[in-house]
Amino acid sequence: MKRPTLLLFDVNETLLDLSSMKAEINRVFRHEFAFNQWFLMLLHYSLVENSKRTYHSFGEVGVATLGMAAEVLGCDVEESEYKRLVGLILERPPHAEVSESLQKLKDAGYRLAVLTNSAEKALVRQMEFAGLTHFFEALISVDEFRRYKPDPSTYQGAATLLQLPEDEIMMVAAHGWDVAGASQAGMKSAFLARPGQAVYSLSTPPDMIETDLLALTQKLVLL
Question: In whole numbers, what is the pLDDT of the chain averaged over residues?
Fold first, then answer.
């Protein structure tokens, strides 16, 4: 495979570890699947926003769908808790191997950037808290395009901002829908098979599949 010029990273679950947030949502809801139910609804209704040609921030969709998850699961949760629980995503640590891997990739000459469904202000706070800001030349939120990934316009818009053709960019994500969207938009893709994640078998297969970012890095530095 031809070496990509730039690696474009998803944030939530790809770079940042949401496990403690998952535990807290499950505790408050008193339901072991509360986080999974909510996160699936968050992604689903962000796509509903695309279909309706409307745009509410990821945080707003997050609060709305947390309330929906409580209703669906029959959990008695105070509405005042919704915003607090969604806000936990702003202060999540990186996965253990992320900082080391990003440094190795920079040392190997890769350009690095981020493309996320998180709102712009939230993204800045997430990266600052995780101590990752300095690795990236650009932190791109879909706020810029008012469309959510995996809409092709988000990847194409990022490529335009980065002043690169899509085929010189590799999207790195721990979500099958994200790598599928990037591939459809003409980017290369790498899937991180973190626990609970899987590739969508009806889409273009990712160019690379690894269990974590360090394993992927070890292959990328050899290109």
Answer: 97
Give dist(CA 207, CA 198) in Å, integer.
14
Contact predicate 155/149, CB 8 Å = yes
- Is domain 6-17+92-220 given the CATH code 3.40.50.1000 in the classification? yes
pLDDT in the model for residue 1: 85
Domain spans, the chain: 6-17+92-220, 19-90
Closest alpha carbon to 45 in 67, 65, 72: 65
- Residues 180 and 188: beta-carbon distance below 8 Å: no
Query: Does domain 19-90 match CATH 3.10.50.40?
Result: no
**CA–CA gap between residue 89 and residue 201 (Å, rounded):** 29
Cα 168 → chain centroid:
20
* Phi, psi angles (nearest 5°) of residue 44: -60, -45
Q: Please tell me the distance from the alpha carbon of residue 169 to that of residue 187, in angstroms, as a whole number.
A: 6
Largest CA distance in the chain: 53
What number is the average pLDDT over the span 55-63?
97
